[in-house]
Write a structure and sequence with these properties.
Blueprint lengths: L1 H18 L18 H7 L4 H20 L7 H21 L4 H27 L1
Helix pairs in contact: 1-3, 1-5, 3-4, 4-5
């Protein structure tokens, strides 16, 4: 169970860090509303660049805290909760503009992964 928790933490953190760093301006099939970069995607949702920057800072910080949680377990649940909240918002925005499954799926998978991280972190903490 602890291995699954660590793998989920790594998967969420690395995915978010890559999306908000070197893939920020890349055109991918996961962009909402046929946007070719993150700024266009946020604009499609009716959000401005300042909002994108704030969301990006929080997501990157949560990803870093998840990674720190591999060593300092007290960071895991709060970071996963905040990240999960952002992912739930991302699902909402994808649905609000009727995005198809492909752009919506990563947010949904990250949300479910955050829920699993919280659940497993509680289970692992109780067993110690």
């Amino acid at each position: 169970m602890k291995l699954i928790l660590k793998l989920l933490i790594l998967a969420v953190a690395v995915t978010v860090l890559s999306a908000w760093t070197f893939r920020l301006e890349m055109d991918t099939i996961y962009r909402g509303a046929d946007a070719s970069n993150m700024i266009e995607e946020f604009q499609a949702y009716g959000l401005n660049q300042t909002t994108m920057i704030v969301v990006g800072i929080f997501k990157v910080m949560c990803a870093i805290f998840l990674l720190l949680g591999l060593k300092f377990e007290k960071f895991v649940t709060p970071a996963a909760f905040i990240m999960g909240t952002f992912m739930l918002a991302a699902i909402y925005f994808h649905l609000s503009i009727s995005d198809p499954l492909i752009p919506t799926a990563p947010s949904a998978m990250m949300f479910l992964s955050c829920l699993a991280i919280i659940y497993l972190d509680k289970k692992v903490s109780k067993s110690l």
